Structure formats: C-alpha cells, structure tokens
Amino acid sequence: MLLLQRWARAAAAPTPRRCCAALLLASTLLAHPAWAQTPSPDALRTQFDALREKGTGQLTDRSIYLRSSESADRMQGEVHALINQPFDQVRQELAKADSWCDVLILHINVKYCRGQRTAAGEQLVSGVGRKFDQPLSEVYWVRFGFNVVADRDDHMLVKLRAPSGPLSTRDYRIVMEAVPHSGGQSLVRMTYSYGFGTAARWAMKTYLATLGSGKSGFSVVGRSAGGAPILVDGVRGVVERNTLRYYLALQSHLQSGGAPDGGPLQKNMDLWFTATERYADQLREMDRADYVAMKLKEVQRQATVAPPPPG
User: Fold this and answer.
1) Which of the residues 98, 144, 159, 209 has an alpha carbon 20 to 30 A from that of 227?
2) What gap in Å lies between CA 28 and CA 124, rounded to an integer?
C-alpha cells in the first residue's frame, strides 16, 4: 500500500513516534480565538452572510466556507456551513458526548473515542494516530472535557477542551455552534485550536517534509503567471484539510440519522467517504474499501477495549 511505503520512508527520520505526533497535529483542528465568549445567534448569521457576500473561503458547495490561520504558537481553522438537517435534530444529537465520538471516529486519523463520566464531568477519551490500521499501544491520547454551554430553541453551543497533548502541544479546543435556518436547515460553525511549542513545531516540520510533502489546502493565496490559482500549503494546508474532514464527519453523522450501530454505521462511513471524494485532490488517502474495513475494526475495538487510565 502506497501510504504504508510513504510512512516507512518518513519513519527513517529521527523517531517514528515523533512522526506520528506530527500526524496528530495534522489531524487536530482549530477554534475561534474568542473562546470565553458566547456569541449570539444573530452574530453567527451575520458572519455567515458576510462570508457569502464576499465569497471568503467558499468551497465547491456554496453552503460551506473554510478559513484558517496560524500564529507563532497556535493553529486555527474554522468552517461555516448550512446543513440540511433541522435544528432540533442537531440539538438532539450533538448535546450528547457519545454522539461526538460517533462523529470523530469517522476521521481517518482517529483510532478510538469513548465518552466517560468523571468527577469533573463528562469527558471524551480520544486516540489519534496514523492514516492506516494501528494498534492502540501506538496512538496518542487526548482527553477532552465536554461542556454544553447553550442548548436552547434558537441556539446551541458545545465546547470540548483538553489541557495538553503530546510533544508540548497544549490547550486543545473544539467548538460547535448552531442556530436554526430557513427551509428546515441549520447553520453551523465548527472550530478547533491547539497551542504548541518547540517540539511540536519540529514534529510538524518533519511531517511537512515527508508525509505532508506536496499537499495543499483550499485557500487561494495567489495566481500563477497564467492566472491559475495557487493554493495554500504547509501548516495552513494541513489545518484546512483536516478542518474539512472533521466538518464532513459531523455532516455525515447528522445525515445518517444518529448513532452508528448496525446499518447506520456503514451509512456514516459511506457518506463521509463520498463527501471527501468531492475534494479528492486534497483529502484522498486510501480507497473506500480499505477505509471502511479499517473503521469497522476501530469501532468494534473501541466498544470492547477500555481506554487507558489518566496519566
């Protein structure tokens, strides 16, 4: 398999686990800088209208807008989108921690996810690793606190936060905000972020020089002499690819009608893979059969294997 061969070449660099950490960084999305604020429903609609008017970050589907940025010590990415599901369904599904595991496991880098109740509240235990089959002994574990900040008839806001990750990464955040929209649709903003230090910067540099070499994101950052668009690459390219992967996982889960058991599980996977194929130049890593086989194994494993204890 080509991906395995590419990983073997990349693993020849300093250590395989550091390269794997780079994949964790590549699979992590970003959040809106104003974490402490609780924006109003009207603010979300105003932002979406402005994106539509300017066409900022518009993808092939006019209902999806993608933005990203990077700073000296933090990565950011954000999707604004219309989802063809009623707001009541969005509320019902995404107010539950277990539903978020059903979303996250669709991402190609997520190897395990299980919700837990702790003394501090609900938590998501997530294992993140490579883009192919991998034992849990080799994944990196991130523990997200789960908090439903707002759950009203006109506004939903869910926040996940993990204080630390591998190789000096820190303050992982996932935010999902939704409001009702006309025609039975829902307007969603999905954002992720993490902070990083020297070790994480080195790991990402290694990834970009090996497994991430030659890949692009979606933002147009210039034009060639012939007028062809030049797409963002590097760290922002990584952010944009994985931001979209996670959003499409959210969309696919909602479209499938709920928790993935039995038939709906297969439907979740097919919907996600089909959605990513619209952006195959950036997102394709394996064929459908290999993806489904890997995910079926991972979902079965997370149902039968307990997560490791904290620490």
Assistant:
1) 209
2) 15
